[in-house]
């Protein structure tokens, strides 16, 4: 059992639960499960059909930009379902994955909290996220700490976003340049 009270289960057990009639399944913790890109793609297919899952934890699960892109595609245009996504400590998400997430945020109206600590971002990915969040009134909390290659350009872009987005509540930005 995880300290949060959730049970960590492997992906092969989780996929049938997401794909079936499990309306009661509201949180799924797959951290440290090494789901990788193949697992992310399978998870994306299941998420495309599931509207009850509110929280997904895939931190430290070997997800790269390809996996992040698959998940972002599944969440595009959603107005219900997933409210919190934690994809922290997946160093290979990088700017390409962040750009896919940013593209998804333009049309997603369900995600409220996004954790992207230590995912290999530079200012390029942060600028993409900031631009999308200028037009997203749903996301309230964004965690971008421990991405040391974020410099003044990324911080300035986030500052502009905060000035334009009046519904955004909290940005974590520690451990950057």
UniProtKB/TrEMBL annotation:
Keywords: GTPase activation, Leucine-rich repeat, Repeat. One of its GO terms (biological process) is nucleocytoplasmic transport. The keyword Repeat applies. This is Uncharacterized protein. InterPro entries: Leu-rich_rpt, LRR_dom_sf, RanGap. One of its GO terms (cellular component) is cytosol. The keyword Repeat applies. One of its GO terms (molecular function) is GTPase activator activity. Pfam families: LRR_6. It comes from the Eukaryota.
């Amino acid at each position: 059992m995880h300290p949060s009270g959730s049970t960590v289960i492997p992906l092969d057990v989780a996929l049938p639960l997401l794909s079936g009639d499990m309306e009661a399944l509201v949180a799924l913790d797959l951290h440290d499960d090494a789901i990788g890109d193949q697992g992310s793609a399978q998870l994306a297919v299941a998420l495309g059909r599931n509207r009850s899952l509110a929280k997904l934890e895939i931190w430290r699960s070997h997800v790269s930009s390809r996996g992040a892109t698959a998940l972002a595609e599944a969440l595009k245009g959603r107005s219900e379902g997933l409210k919190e996504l934690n994809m922290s400590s997946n160093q290979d998400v990088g700017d390409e994955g962040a750009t896919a997430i940013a593209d998804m945020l333009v049309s997603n109206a369900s995600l409220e909290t996004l954790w992207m600590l230590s995912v290999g971002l530079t200012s390029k990915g942060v600028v993409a996220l900031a631009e999308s969040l200028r037009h997203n009134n749903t996301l309230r909390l964004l965690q971008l700490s421990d991405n040391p290659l974020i410099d003044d350009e990324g911080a300035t872009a986030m500052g502009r976003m905060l000035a334009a987005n009046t519904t955004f509540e909290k940005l974590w930005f520690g451990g950057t340049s």
